[in-house]
Amino acid sequence: MTLYTYFRSSAAYRVRIVLALKGLAWQPSVVHMLRDGGEQHRPEYRAVNPLGLVPTLVDGDAILVQSTAICEYLEETHPEPPLLPRDPVARAYVRAVMATIACEIHPLDNLRVLHYVTKTLGHDEDEKLAWYRHWVAVGFAGLEALMTRAGRTGRYVHGDTPTLADAFLVPQVFNARRFQCPLDAFPTIVRVADTAAAHPAIASARPDAQVDAA
Known about the structure:
alpha+beta; 4-stranded mixed beta sheet; 9 helices
């Protein structure tokens, strides 16, 4: 398998975590999202992924895009160890956490949105950071309530073993800290993310451990 990745991409980070938890071998193909205006915009990469986003996973003849779809593909094709609970209600909870991050928080704070805020709308760095921190706080407030009220959280998002939800939570908390978002109001999120980030497989997927981090 080949993963088109960028070390700071939280979407690629999710897939790296799942690959590591599954113990799957893969080769990186780095798409630098800042160099020369962003290598994701090059025609040769658009030929692989017409969305111009990372990650892209190539598995044999299959070319897979969108991190949620890729993670679920890996769960379905490599079911051990399982990263989704068997119980349908628990499975829906894990997917709700994933969707809250992937659909409600991350899209407002990803690179192309932040570039639009500064380069097109003309906001300065402080205003960009205020935008980022606002939407993280809004999203994390809802996620904290969801995780707390569901009563399913153990050491990880669901119980005491990692699931796909942890693969989504860890990168989002990493990014929140990178942008110095206040996190004191979200103790469950922080506790679970820190526990998950310390898992050896998940730790191997962290941005500073990637070949392109230098």
